[in-house]
Amino acid sequence: MSGHEHIPPASNQLPIVTGTDGQAYIPADAVAAFLRAVAESCRNLADDPDCNLRTAGAAIDLEADALDCRAILRTT
Known about the structure:
With 76 residues, the chain is mainly α. The protein contains 2 helices and 2 strands.
């Protein structure tokens, strides 16, 4: 990869369901698996001299933004 290709957010794989209260929910097992994947990504980046906690934080923010958008679409 040249670094310019669009990679869809991993959070797109999380199932979102709408509760009887109209709120968006993600099953706990999916959240746990997602958090484990985030942790593994951080471990993989730990030795990369071009990455730091700011880089990891920015990637997590992008995932959160994508998830927020999906939740809004699910509930509107």
